[in-house]
């Protein structure tokens, strides 16, 4: 009989049955989980009966006794994830546990005679009858490490497989790629994920921007999330979900989603991880972080802080030609940016009862940044190639006391033995900045103009969401949810001209823009397995958005009101255990960013301005894709996307003034294919992954009364290597190479790009040191554009970067000492 892949069956069942304890990595242990799920309901009835009996018969006393021990192989290696079972003599399951990373287990039960068993991935390894009268220490239980056990031991290989509408990356804590790595560093080993070398951004397949969630929740924006992932150890991650085209469960948007699920294990009472890194590019940048994980009884706490002190240089050269006036403008822009960032966070979970948990999260980001630009603008007549004039601009863009504050309160209650549940979240977000843009323009006739732009922004968002998840005995699941958010944004834009003493407000440009938005959504998803070889996930999301933006200086108002339905569908067909097909359909919307609704005009240089567009239309997109997964390691994707009302940034030359704005320009059709795989070779000494993308798209439309016709083919591939040089895999060389053939879009044609990144690391017990370099082969970026009215050529210079980083983990060592002491006591 054809079956769905074991990975999918395992994921579906473990969503209902103690996924924390049994670890989704263990496939065959699902059988035990199913038995245990049925027993939970009976155990609740049994406990109620016992309490009633104790109330009526105080003469009887049932005392709990402990059974503990350690599971080792015959060569004294610990066996993690061994299933420890306590049954009645008739074979009825009563209690179970999972051995920790050092092989230890512990079970509590009433006094009596029982059958004790140890199994591993469904294979029975040990059996013994025991009579419990008092606490029992079984000591070290040695399992013959024979051929059978070798075949079922958990692999150190990373596992990535399609599960309906998302890829799930599992087996992380056992992967050699997670050893001594932060979660962000580990993310870059996933074939379809690309982390920027400086750690400032993440993309799916090198093109799709993402929203980063931690435990399914927004933590205050991607900047905060990236800081957290740079400090959280990869071995503490339970699972990573990569969703390129999110379904109905998520707010409709064109961004992909990366959801990092942190393991809330209590096997380790505490852990402290300290990180420090120094990066030398044109200037030096330093950053450091600290991470603390603590758990005791019903409490689980993770917290940390990320610090960064940076200094960067940027050089850009732009050339614009206005064909009507036959004039050319050349702009050289040298910029130096200095900044400090401080990001603290804390997450607290408390177990109210066996079926209820509450949690609280807090994160913040404090920044002070300053960019100083020297801009030289030269004006030529194209006919005679003579310099007509020249001016120099100095710009100081200072953001002081920028801060983000984010709070989350959450509650979850389990409703039945199948883990049906209701979860609720309340979120509060607030950001404020004080921004001063000082400008000094010097002209050839010794005239100097000084002015200040001060666009201060305040954003406040309140959000409430609740989801109901109903699980059924046939493994189907219904999920419904409601989401409401209210946003208030205010931009206080001061524009002042310098009179020799102070900056005096220019009433023509000083203004206040207030924006209010209400968002409401309902969604429903239903997942059904019709057979062992066919499954369906169908969803529908309704969203309503109402917004209003007003200018203080006049009665002009921007009003937005729209309702949209977003269907989604995923079909999964398991040809057999090694071959699987998945068909996905999703729809999305890219709404007008608030920054583009703000009607202010910003002056960039003596002849260039930035103009926003409050009348921008939303972009709507529909996507259908087919994925073929074979032999667990290989994935082939084919997809088609239809997009309406595309918008992008434009540089237009109007009356020899360079106007940067954003506007709609047409509709697009995109066709693409992706292939990627990951393998471990030479007894796990070489971890190799490869990803390749080929995309063809065409755009038809119009901008500024000029027809738009784009036909483009983009090819990209990426190779990631991790080479381990010693038996214990303490020394690793990470080598990543990428190639992009360049592409053409509405904003111009970009040249081909190469990238080469190196990282050599060495572990010394709990201390890890690495040195490396990135952007070694990256060329300067060139962008060219031309139409009947104007043309431009832009060049962005890049600088190679070198780094050294250190990481120290405190907690493992102390626990190992305690374990060794306990083990010696048992052996003696």
UniProtKB/TrEMBL annotation:
Keywords: Cell outer membrane, Membrane, Transmembrane, Transmembrane helix. It is found in: Cell outer membrane. The chain crosses the membrane at residues 44-62. GO terms for cellular component: cell outer membrane. Gene3D superfamilies: Immunoglobulins, TonB-dependent receptor, beta-barrel domain, TonB-dependent receptor, plug domain. Its main location: membrane. The keyword Transmembrane helix applies. Pfam families: OMP_b-brl_3. The keyword Transmembrane applies. Residues 415-808 form the Outer membrane protein beta-barrel domain. This is Outer membrane protein beta-barrel domain-containing protein. The lineage of its organism: Bacteria, Pseudomonadati, Bacteroidota, Flavobacteriia, Flavobacteriales.
């Amino acid at each position: 009989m054809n079956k769905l892949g074991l990975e999918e069956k395992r994921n579906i069942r473990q969503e209902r049955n103690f996924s924390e304890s049994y670890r989704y990595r263990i496939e065959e242990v699902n059988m035990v989980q199913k038995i245990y799920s049925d027993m939970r309901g009976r155990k609740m009835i049994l406990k109620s009966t016992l309490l009633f009996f104790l109330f009526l018969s105080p003469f009887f006393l049932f005392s709990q006794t402990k059974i503990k021990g350690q599971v080792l192989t015959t060569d004294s290696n610990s066996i993690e994830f061994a299933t420890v079972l306590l049954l009645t003599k008739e074979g009825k399951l009563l209690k179970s546990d999972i051995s920790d990373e050092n092989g230890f287990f512990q079970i509590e039960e009433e006094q009596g005679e029982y059958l004790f068993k140890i199994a591993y991935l469904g294979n029975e390894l040990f059996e013994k009858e025991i009579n419990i009268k008092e606490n029992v220490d079984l000591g070290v239980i040695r399992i013959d490490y024979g051929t059978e056990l070798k075949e079922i031991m958990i692999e150190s290989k990373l596992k990535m497989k399609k599960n309906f509408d998302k890829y799930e990356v599992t087996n992380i804590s056992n992967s050699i790629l997670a050893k001594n790595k932060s979660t962000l560093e580990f993310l870059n080993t996933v074939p379809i994920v690309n982390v920027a070398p400086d750690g400032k951004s993440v993309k799916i397949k090198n093109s799709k921007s993402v929203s980063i969630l931690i435990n399914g929740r927004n933590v205050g924006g991607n900047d905060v999330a990236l800081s957290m992932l740079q400090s959280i150890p990869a071995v503490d991650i339970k699972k990573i979900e990569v969703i390129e085209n999110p379904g109905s469960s998520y707010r409709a948007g064109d961004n992909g989603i990366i959801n990092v699920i942190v393991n809330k294990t209590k096997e380790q009472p505490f852990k402290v991880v300290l990180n420090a890194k120094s990066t030398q590019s044109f200037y030096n940048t330093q950053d450091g972080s600290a991470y603390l994980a603590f758990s005791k009884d019903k409490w689980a706490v993770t917290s940390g802080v990320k610090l960064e002190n940076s200094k960067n240089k940027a050089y850009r050269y732009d050339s614009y030609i206005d064909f009507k006036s036959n004039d050319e403008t050349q702009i050289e822009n040298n910029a130096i940016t200095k900044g400090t960032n401080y990001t603290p966070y804390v997450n607290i979970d408390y177990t109210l009862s066996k079926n209820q948990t509450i949690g609280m999260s807090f994160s913040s980001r404090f920044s002070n940044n300053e960019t100083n630009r020297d801009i030289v603008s030269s004006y030529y007549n194209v006919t005679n190639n003579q310099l007509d004039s020249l001016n120099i601009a100095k710009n100081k863009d200072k953001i002081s006391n920028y801060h983000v504050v984010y709070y989350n309160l959450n509650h979850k209650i389990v409703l039945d033995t199948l883990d049906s549940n209701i979860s609720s979240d309340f979120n509060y977000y607030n950001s404020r900045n004080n921004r001063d843009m000082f400008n000094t323009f010097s002209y050839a006739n010794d005239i100097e103009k000084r002015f200040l732009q001060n666009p201060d922004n305040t954003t406040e968002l309140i959000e409430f969401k609740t989801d109901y998840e109903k699980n059924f005995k046939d493994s189907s699941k219904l999920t419904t949810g409601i989401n409401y958010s209210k946003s208030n944004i205010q931009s206080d834009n001061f524009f002042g001209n310098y009179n020799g003493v102070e900056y005096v407000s220019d009433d023509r440009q000083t203004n206040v823009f207030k924006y209010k938005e209400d968002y409401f959504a309902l969604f429903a998803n239903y997942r059904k397995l019709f057979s062992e070889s066919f499954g369906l996930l169908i969803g529908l999301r309704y969203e309503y958005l109402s917004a209003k933006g007003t200018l203080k200086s006049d009665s002009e108002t921007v009003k937005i009101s729209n309702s949209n339905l977003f269907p989604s569908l995923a079909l999964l067909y398991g040809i057999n255990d090694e071959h699987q097909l998945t068909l996905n359909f999703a729809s999305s919307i890219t709404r007008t960013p608030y920054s583009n609704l703000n009607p202010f005009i910003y002056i960039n240089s003596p002849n260039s301005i930035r103009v926003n567009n409050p009348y921008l239309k939303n972009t709507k997109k529909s996507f259908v894709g087919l994925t073929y997964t074979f032999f667990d390691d290989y994935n082939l994707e084919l997809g088609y996307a239809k997009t309406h009302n595309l918008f992008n940034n434009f540089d237009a030359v109007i009356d020899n003034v360079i106007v940067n704005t954003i506007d709609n320009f047409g509709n697009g059709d995109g066709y693409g294919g992706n292939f990627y795989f990951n393998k471990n070779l030479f007894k796990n000494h070489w971890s190799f992954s490869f990803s390749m993308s080929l995309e063809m798209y065409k755009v038809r439309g119009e901008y500024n009364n000029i027809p738009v016709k784009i036909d483009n083919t983009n090819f990209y591939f990426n190779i990631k290597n991790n080479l381990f040089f010693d038996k214990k895999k303490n020394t690793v060389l990470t080598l990543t190479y990428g190639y992009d053939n360049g592409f053409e879009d509405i904003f111009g044609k970009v040249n081909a790009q190469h990238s080469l990144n190196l990282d050599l690391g060495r572990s010394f017990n709990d201390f890890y040191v690495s040195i490396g370099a990135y952007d070694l082969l990256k060329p300067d970026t060139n962008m060219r554009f031309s139409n009947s009215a104007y043309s431009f050529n832009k060049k962005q210079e890049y600088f190679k970067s070198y780094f050294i980083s250190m990481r120290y983990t405190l907690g493992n060592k102390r626990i190992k000492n305690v374990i060794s002491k306990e083990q010696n006591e048992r052996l003696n």
